Amino acid sequence: xxxxxxxxxxxxGYSSFRPVQQQVIESVLNNKDTIAIMPxxxxxxxxxxxxxxxxxxLTLVVSPLISLMKDQLDQLLELGIEAGMLNSTLSDDEYxxxxxxxxxxxxxxxxCAPETLLQQRTIxxxxxxxxxxxxxxxxxxxSEWGHDFRPEYRRIAEVRSRFNxxxxxxxTATATDQVRLDIASQLKINPDSVMVASFDRPNLFIxxxxxxxxxxxxxxxxxQFSGQPGIIYCFSRRQVDELSEYLNNNGIKNxxxxxxxxxxxxxxxxxxxxxxDINIITATVAFGMGINKPDIRFVLHYDMPQNIESYYQQIGxxxxxxxxxxxxxxxxxxxxxxxxxxxxxxxxxxxxxxxDKLNDLLSFLENRECRRVPLMTYFSEKPASQKCDNCDNCLxxxxxEKEYTVQAQKFLSCMMRLDxxxxxSLIIDVLRGSKSEKVKKSGALxxxxxxxxxxxxxxxxxxxxxxxxSKGLLKVNAETGSLVITKVGADILKGKQKFYGYIxxxxxxxxxxxxxNLQNSELFELLRTLRKQIADADGVPPYTVxxxxxxxxMTQFLPQDQDDLLMIYGVGHNKLQKFGxxxxxxxxxxxxxxxxxxxxxxxxxxxxxxxSAHSISSKMYQDGTPVHEIAQKLSIQTSTVIDHLNKWIxxxxxxxxxxxxxxxxISEELCFRVHSLFEKHGVFKLKPVFEEAAGEIxxxxxxxxxxxxxxxxxxx
Length: 716
Description:
716 residues, alpha/beta, Arc Repressor Mutant, subunit A, six-stranded parallel β-sheet, 47% helix, globular
């Protein structure tokens, strides 16, 4: 791990590993087969890239998409790492050169699609070299229970068995317990070797708003992110084409992406987006897996996705650089009918699973509590807090519930009179007195519940229907899609119980995404322009030169020489040699022209030019700056500042924690309680303390109390 930490800084330019990364890498370096479940943007690729640089032999990375391979390969080559790929896009000469490098042992990392891997010539080639590590990326594709099953992924197990001396690591961002077990079974990895990082992406602001005027809502939303990258997801190809054209006609430059375009059109549009030549891509779910673009500032779901896995994977493409990003979903009940149509084309077993997943998604969308709680619970993670303060429900709680027993009885009675043979849409049309052909054919014009529900609009009825469903008054028949009343519903129909719900307000929530703190926006644009010029000259996406997070740190700390620049996030030795002087020249010129902005220079009156990020945070705290203000000034999370303070005291530096207790409103009673838990479990791992406290104390508060405990400020 000493070598791993050294490579992390020297090659990749990062000062520390993310949560779980270090455990996964340590496991792989100890030759243990491992399954890593980490969120999109959680740093999965480092879990095999760093071991690949330490192991003597070749690391094989199995990846589902050529575009995904190309994206990761570009980034590795910019770092000076010997990497290559084998796929159908290579010319004969390129293929032969890669084969030669493998045989000579000069290639460290080889990317390969499963179809290419299973060819006999690829197997023969791998037989001719020392294979140290097999990394199966997007491993959920191996499971029939996953949302993106690919039959060819099943056969990876054959290669795994053939090269059983190689360590195997399987990585994915979206895997339920069932999928994890299936991955372990297929690849013959001990299920106890599964390591799971938190599914929470705290930098993503999540909101769900009623779909009323979607085109106008899309434009209003996009205009909040002038000049910044974003993805819009639509349900169908037709919807993509229509919305893309509408946006272009209204001055919002974008390109479409869906399976109906030619390969060349899709590739061209994707490259324009990757290379910052356009900022917005309007797409079906066909887009995204091959994109590792870290600076996507928003994801807009113009239509509902089909399940929570898809939703989580798609919003996970935003904010992969750790900076704030906004994920909005326009929720219209009409979208449910589109999804149900496709579900009903499946066979009975698939249909039931698909309806279960749809109901899980709808429960999430109808949820009145913190958005992260059901999202994380779905992936079997117990949330550390019941309130994230970074979603619509936390910042703008839904209205109070009112009694809607009469409306529930009308709905359920209508279901019964139609012999429980129809879905919600027709029942609502009957209640509202529609004379549509479908209503006439159902024979509903002559039943007693026809027209008795005109007091509510269709969307309001749909709103109440979903709440009746989530509260167990009715359920969907998976085979027919019709609604069936439950015992709870029967009790309400008979007046034995009351039903409470709420009508979702039509207005958008006032909550909004937190913006990153950018003090020198002029310098940031100058650095972006330079980055684009370098990237275009090298034929790579700009983010492979430096991500936005690196440029933002440059604007904050204004490095003046190469030693200063090495302190910046994402600056390793290879990129320092390739690009360092060009970026330093722009920064120095800016400092000369703007002498009043030099107060944050890393080097100002500071003999220790290698001052780390955690020492900068800690010194600001010791100077009296509150943690929340430090986080805002440095564009990092408050939890990161707490981690910096923990690292500071681990180096035997002094720290007064009293201000922390005051800032976070930590009571004497809580200090007493946690003190005894630390006495019992120690301070090395917080999970036992968290679990004994029944999850009632946030991890962030536990970290603060650990600081207080260790520094001896426990006089209560």
